[in-house]
Structure formats: C-alpha cells, structure tokens
Amino acid sequence: MTTNPPRTRRTSPSRDAEDTSRRRYFATLAMDRPDIALCRATTVVARAVDAELTGYNVTAAQHLVLKMLSDVGPCSQQELSEQLRIDRSVMVGCIDGLENSGLVRRERHPKDRRANAITLTAEGLVALAEVESGVPRLLDRAFQALTPAERKTLARLVAKILEVK
C-alpha cells in the first residue's frame, strides 16, 4: 500500500506594503470586467441591507415581498418569486415566516382557484412602514462612496441592464 505525502498549502507571496498595484488590482479588474464588479457590488449592498434589517425581524427577501404586495396588491407565490427573482423554494419559507408573524395571509386567488394569493395584512403594512423608514440609512450605508448624482446614474444604468431580457 502506498501512501500519498501530506498536501501542503501554497502560501501567498510576500506583499510589499508600498505595492499599490496589488492594492488596486480589483479596481482595475472592475473597470475591465463590469460583470465581476456588479457581483462584488451586490455583495456590498447585500451586507448593508442585512445590517440595516437586523432590528426589524424581517429578511431582505421578506422586505421585498412586503413592498411588492403593498405596491401592486395580492400576488401568487409564483408571481412574487418570478418578479423578485427569489427561488421558489426560498419563497415558500419567506411566505411561511411572514404568515407566522401575521404580516401576510394566504387566500384563495380570485382569478385562479388552484393558486393562493398572498395578501398584506394591516400588521404587515405597519412593519413595512417601519422597515421603509430605515431605507435612507440603508442607501447611505450601501452607496456611501457615491454622490447623489452618481447614485441616480447608477440606478439609471442598472435599470437599463435589467430591461434587456
């Protein structure tokens, strides 16, 4: 029986504190690869959202569901999942949590008897108003590196990307 020698981890090369090219690598990469930059920016924004929502007892997905229900009215879970780009299996748990908290209720869908319509409750409307009161702080935290004009430009450009199907 032969034994394999233990694997050793490669160590990172020594880093020179004065080597600005290493520290600026991601910024340079982001300029060449907007796909990578958007993924990284999404992580930064998601962390800001999570930090802001901690005191409200709702997740980011639940906040989106409450907001959509408030803005467009009752929806099926499938429609919420498709419009908010939340996986259907995640959406079930999201709705279950909101329903258990009394923020939404499931009712028979008026146009499709096979489906449930998710409806915002009065308590859900109050919870949404509380969460929405924190949105300015959330935006400031997530987009602190941008001026107000740059935020508008970013929103316009991202909306343009999302229009493409």
How would you describe what is shown here?
The model has no long low-confidence stretch (mean pLDDT 85). By secondary structure, the chain is mainly alpha-helical. The protein has nine helices and three strands. A hairpin with a 7-residue loop joins strand 2 (104-108) and strand 3. The chain has helices at residues 20-23, 25-32, 34-53, 60-72, 77-84, 88-100, 122-133, 135-142, 148-163, and strands at 75-76, 104-108, 116-120. Strands 1-3-2 form a three-stranded antiparallel β-sheet.
Question: What does this entry show, briefly?
Answer:
This protein has 165 residues and is mainly α. The chain has helices at 20-23, 25-32, 34-53, 60-72, 77-84, 88-100, 122-133, 135-142, 148-163; strands at 75-76, 104-108, 116-120.
Biggest sheet descriptor: 3 strands, antiparallel
Q: Residue share in helices?
A: 55-70%
Structural class: mainly alpha
Helix tally equals: 9
Please list the strands of the largest sheet in the order they lie side by side: 1-3-2
Radius of gyration: 22 Å
Oligomer: single chain
Q: How many DSSP-defined strands?
A: 3
What fraction strand? 5-15%
